[in-house]
Amino acid sequence: MTFELMQFILMVVRGIMLLTIFLLASMSMYALFVSLLGKNAPKGIVLGLSLIIGPMLLSWFNIMLLYFFAEHTSKFYVWWLAFAFGVPGIIATFRHGPNLWGTYSDMLATFAQDKVKSRIYYLFLTLVILAMGQLLLTQLFIPLSANDPLEYASVSRLIATLHSARDYPFMDRTLTGGLYAGWTHPLGYAGLLSYAFMLQGPAVENAGIIKFVAPYYVFAQAILIMAFAGWKRPLAGPVAAFILLATPIYFHLASQAHIDISRLATMTAAVVSVWLLAANGNLRHALIAILAIGMAQFSHSIGLLTLPLVIPLYLLISKSSWIITIRNSALLIFGSLLFVALRLIINIKTIGAPLGDYVKIWTFPNIKAEHHLQVVRHLESLYDKIINGMMSGWSSLEMFYIFHWALTGALVIAVIYFRKQIMQPVSLVKNMFWKNEDPVFAALIIIMGFYAMLALTIMAGTELAIKNVRYTMTVQPLLAVALARLLVWFMDLKRSQSPKQIRTKKARKKADATAKAKAAGAGA
Amino acid sequence: MIRFLWNSVTRAFGYIIDHRRLSLTVFVIAFVTVQSFLNTSFITADYFRKFKVGPATAFDSDYRKLLASNLPVANIIELLRRENITGELTLVFRQAEFGYYSGLPFAYIYDNTYADLFEKATPAQLYAKLRSKNIKYLLTPDYAMPEFYNTGFADFVADLSFSEQIYEQQGYKLTRLRDQPIESSAQKIITSADFTKSPQSMRKWQLGRQPSGMLQQLSTEKAKLVFNESAGMVQLIRKKSYHSRPYIVDVLQPNPLRPKASPFLLGQSDFEPKGNTFSVEVDVEGRGYFELVVAGYARANILEESNELVVWSGVLDGERRTVRGRFTDIIPKRTASNLAEDERRYRVYLRLQDGTELDLRSWKVRTLTEDSPALDFVNRYQAALDMGWDFGDRQARFLYFGVIADDKKELDQSNEPWVQISQYDSSLVGVRSPLFYVPPSTYRDMDRINVLDTLARQINPAIHTTFELSGHGAVGITALVYCRNFDGSDPALAATAISLGTRILLDTTRSDKTTFLSSCLPSFIRYDITVKRNRFMAKADNALSDIRFRNLKTSLSFATPDQTIRKVELIPVTRLIAKNMFTSPDVTGDRQPLKAILETPSK
Predict the structure, then answer these.
(1) To the nearest whole angstrom, how far is the Cα of A112 from the nearest Cα of chain B?
(2) What is the ipTM of this complex?
(3) Neighbour-count burial for A294-331, b at 16+ CB within 10 Å, e otherwise
(4) 3-state secondary structure string, B372-431?
(5) pTM value?
(6) Which residue of B has its CA nearest to A170?
(7) Residue B556 forms beta bridges with which residues?
């Protein structure tokens, strides 16, 4: 056996260890969530949430340990956390595992009665699995070579070597050997990577198991999306997951272990947890939402945008009384900020602002860094900013494929179909859409909110939010949810009534009645 | 049969027409689904192609894979490791790969410690600042950075007095600061034009000839060239499209949607090289992003073999400035071909991004160093030659020789009844192509064979082999030399087979030594060992010859231009287990590293 092969096998073994720890952390979260929500909670969605929140919470504890109990050995951090999350995880797996699988197979069994649908379901599930297989191949064999992932890896390796998160942001070259990371990003992703580094040792010529973190989050994201999009319409689940994976930019970022994968996952989890909270505004639901939003903020500095996205969503779709809604909103804001409070304080102390890339030389008048960016990325005029920046989902087909256009088309068709209902007074529309539980509405509200936010930043005269297409990708998971659910809805519509039927007056009346019932039914 | 087919077809058509909406929907959904799935597959396949991951390299470390795929930064790290740096820093304009993989100390441009380097400064001032901060190398990436072109760095690098460019690949450049500034000698202008003084010379500039050998007539709607003789300038304008693609991630290629690269606008002028290092200067005013490009080509090939080099790239913000770049003669002299010297050409042109408008007032190309016999091909490559043939311990982990044994091959049943010959091939091969030699900074893709041929003739590489044989039977040995061509995609250029003769052993042990000349720089050497069995020689209980082959040592010697003989030893002690052939697997120890010996024997 060659030396390389042995190294490789060792890496795979350690990778499996890492993923096991992640899964156990998720299962312990699952047990916690189920005990909080009770047995009637939608199990798939709760599982998806725990798969995303579990490892990120582990990362949070890892960073806290590295901050407050710095400079112990790697084993201290690795095994204490593995123990703390692993033991409840094992118990939870034995307790809830069979039940979970049972629920899923029950769903499949009822679903199997509709042959066409179940075939399509399995087709898309296969495609998702194949795409993940390809992703796994790239992680096993393709070297890490992209700019940002390598910088994150260097920072995480340094944290793992120093056994301390106290020196971050790294601006002292005597400590780092030259590496400079004067960033304000919270350490969510770096916490996961440094945990992986402590497990495998600081690799120099290899990235090793840190490449497994992004695919894990693709998997977790896929499970959550499948459950969320597949809520009461199981077929939409794998379709949505497939749409997300087939988005070229998403798959590309996942294959190069970019931070955005975990960032998108935690943001989706935050939206879903708020959607759960909206249906039932009790404190237990709020606790999960706080955790999810906190993790979304902890995963990336753009995560701070989660609050301005999910709070309006909550206010719009909450079914609780307004007092409870306000109380919960306040809880969400202050509770979730606790998870990043330490980082924000450090940022204000070191660079004088809670967020922002601070590069001194960019302030030099001769360099004109901002102008360079505007020209090279075609973001000079307002037109450019809108077409190439904000609308890149539509204009960069090579990155986003046709999914933005598909959603636009689907929405147009839906609006034409529902035109009568939309022409009703605002109060009725509000009842139909805003208070509607269907994930489509939650997803659409977030998408619209996000684009409104982009428009606001452009109006404020900054390219910060549009300078990179990776930022525009933020709503892609929710776009996949909305698109998949709309497509499946069309399919159901097609089957229940062909357009010819609607041509007679009588039939039209009947169709309207059915449509209304459907709209109400979708909400039920 | 035909009727049946016809019926089926018409029925199918009938079905489609009857259910045209459904058919269309199914078709669209199926098409989009397949296409979407292809998105992921294309990206995956692209990655595997880009990093040349195959069965032989699948388990290598990430860094090895980057080297194998000829990533510029990886090659630069290799080169810097050989530079034997002690405490001196490389100022990197991109820290990702260098920071993660090199393990070398470096300085990053965004580090506030180095902020004062980015204020406006003359080359001399910048040189002093860099030296005071202990910086010896500059590593710049293949894309334009305002931290480079809007500061003193662009002019600093263009000035021969303070630095030399020691590596250039795909736009990545490694510049080494001189220990002492030198006087730039012989700044002779080879070609120039000042449109403010001689407006007629601007007519030489034209639109739209891409250096790829293809003539592309640009539509006048897209690009415009205006000869403004009264103002004494050429105006180059490239219109903006309704939607411009800012950039495309390199490996992202969902196939049918990928746009074809749009043609660029070029102004151009040809000149002959008369020197070795040139400086290009363009007096330009305008707005937008553009690149100043130099392309070298041979006239006979009408640009087909051209090789372009971006000597300056950046964004103008309405100001007027003189942009400067420098390049080294990148076309090797065709001593072995029938092309005459003067058929080599260079062409300077400007490449504009959508929406860029430029007023060009003058331009000139100067020779920074004179062409003289002393600065001929070998001399220019001397630094690289001196650096070549190095096998550090660090490399040893992955550079090794191994054995690949083919399965038993029954070749021929001889007509002679008393001799039964079975032949087995086994190859002792360098399973990786070691980076024996890093091409010099000026080495470019063009005229590869010519460069290698010239290089090999200059240094006369010889391969010395010693090995030990024991056992009984007949063994024939052939060496195959695979030439290195310094192209990641094609490490082995050609193989030259050299027979090292046949040995007959009768339960004996013998040491053998042989030397042969190679016609090129080897990428790897493969030994084909043919074991023959003569029935009358074989022991009764042994169906095969039993030959043990061990202690293979290979060294390579070559002459440097100053006639010093340098010798590099490769010690490929390998596991010599070949199926069916070597009956004793205990011949060797495990794989051992190639040791680094770069010795200069006394003259």
Answers:
(1) 21
(2) 0.88
(3) bbbbbbbbbbbbbbebbbbbbebbbebeeeebeebbeb
(4) CHHHCHHHHHHHHHHHCCCCCHHHHCCCCEEEEECCCECCCCCCCCCCCCCEEEEEEEEC
(5) 0.75
(6) B111
(7) B463, B568
